């Protein structure tokens, strides 16, 4: 699942008329970078949620055949984004009963998703990264492949993880955050993680978008 329903307030005015996942870096929309990487990894059955200007996403991507994937959409409605937890919960009927990968559309990462490994009894496997300047306190502690919400020091959740549908047992339709569910899984000892040290960018502001664009263009040269 690619999470693409955010409004992108910090990216305004760029997102006033373009959904954030369609903003381009190195000549390519952010969400297309994800689709191509997933396709190379053999992950070809995709679900994308959207809200703000979501029809633009469908118009550009269609059914995904251009990239050799099959895309289905979880439509949350203009101005009705359900937050991360609520968005995933709404999409569960499309995702099925097996564990699934979730990727935030507004990050850029060169991680190969084939390296992720969800533990047999775990509800989540999260990719953690070094804390960026805009988030110095981090999110969760990682030690020995296990995640904790209370210990220090903390790393930052990358926006990439593998989930079991059971994580959402007891949830109800509507908008709700994901973090409380993750903390509950950690408290139960059912949350694994790994520290990824490759390239990762939270494309949350026009400045970071421009910096990533320059970096990728230099790499291409």
Q: Kindly report the average pLDDT value.
A: 94
> Any idea of the CATH topology?
Spore Coat Polysaccharide Biosynthesis Protein SpsA, Chain A
- Widest sheet, order of strands: 5-4-1-6-11-8-12
Strand content: 15-25%
Rg to the nearest angstrom? 17 Å
Structural class comes to alpha/beta
Question: Could you name the ranges where pLDDT drops below 50 across 5 or more consecutive residues?
Answer: none
What is the chain-wise order of helices and strands?
EEEHEHEHEEEEEEHEEH
User: Can you summarize the main beta sheet?
Assistant: 7 strands, mixed
Task: Please state the overall shape, judged from the principal axes of the Cα atoms.
Answer: globular
What is the tally of helical segments?
Answer: 5
CATH H-level superfamily title: Spore Coat Polysaccharide Biosynthesis Protein SpsA, Chain A
* Fraction of residues in H or I helices: 25-40%
Give the tally of β-strands.
13
Q: How many structural domains in the coordinates?
A: 1
CATH level-1 class = Alpha Beta
């Amino acid at each position: 699942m690619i999470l693409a329903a955010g409004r992108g307030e910090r990216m305004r005015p760029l997102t006033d008329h373009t959904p954030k996942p369609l903003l381009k870096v190195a000549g390519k929309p952010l969400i297309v970078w994800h689709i191509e990487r997933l396709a190379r990894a053999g992950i070809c059955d995709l679900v994308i949620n959207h809200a703000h200007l979501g029809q633009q996403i469908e118009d550009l991507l269609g059914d995904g055949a251009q990239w050799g994937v099959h895309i289905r959409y979880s439509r949350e409605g203009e101005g009705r984004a359900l937050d991360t937890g609520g968005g995933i919960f709404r999409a569960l009927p499309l995702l099925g009963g097996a564990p699934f990968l979730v990727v935030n559309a507004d990050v850029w990462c060169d991680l190969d998703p084939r390296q992720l490994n969800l533990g047999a009894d775990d509800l989540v496997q999260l990719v953690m990264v070094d804390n960026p300047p805009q988030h110095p306190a981090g999110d969760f502690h990682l030690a020995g492949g296990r995640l904790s919400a209370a210990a220090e020091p903390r790393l930052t959740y990358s926006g990439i993880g593998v989930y079991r549908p059971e994580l959402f047992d007891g949830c109800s339709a509507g908008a709700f955050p994901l973090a409380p569910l993750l903390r509950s899984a950690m408290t139960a000892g059912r949350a694994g993680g790994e520290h990824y040290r490759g390239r990762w960018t939270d494309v949350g502001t026009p400045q970071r978008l421009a910096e990533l664009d320059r970096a990728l263009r230099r790499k291409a040269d």
